[in-house]
Write a structure and sequence with these properties.
With 121 residues, the chain is mainly α. It has one domain. 64% of the residues lie in helices and 0% in strands. The two termini are 20 Å apart.
Length: 121
């Protein structure tokens, strides 16, 4: 799937609109798939707080979290910042402000060290 190739990569830049679209898509996919698989596991085991349900939820959280970080890295590249700044997202109060910054900040016009302006292609 091309959309997964777009989400799960760190090369290049990602403008604001695509960032918001991919983040929403990732949240919807992760939420629906977690709900469905956890419901199936609960139905099979009869225990909604059992190991299987927690394992499935944990796996989906890791998959979605990895995609989230990769999208943040590409968004930071659009701002001509290092991808390492994505680690700010895990700091409780700063992470919320940082996330809003990524949604609102205008990217670098033209080329930067991470590639071409994503609005030009």
């Amino acid at each position: 799937m091309d959309i997964l190739k777009e989400i799960y990569r760190t090369e290049g830049r990602l403008n604001r609109l695509r960032y918001i679209k991919y983040m929403l898509l990732l949240a919807i996919i992760a939420g629906v798939s977690t709900f469905v698989t956890s419901s199936m596991a609960t139905f099979l085991t009869g225990n909604p707080t059992g190991f299987l349900v927690n394992a499935i939820t944990g796996i989906w959280a890791i998959v979605a979290g990895a995609g989230n970080f990769m999208l943040m890295i590409r968004r930071l590249h659009d701002l001509d910042k290092s991808g390492w700044f994505a680690l700010l997202a895990v700091v409780p109060a700063i992470g919320f402000i940082f996330s809003i910054y990524l949604f609102c900040a205008k990217g670098t016009d033209g080329w930067n060290r991470y590639g071409a302006d994503p609005l030009t292609y």
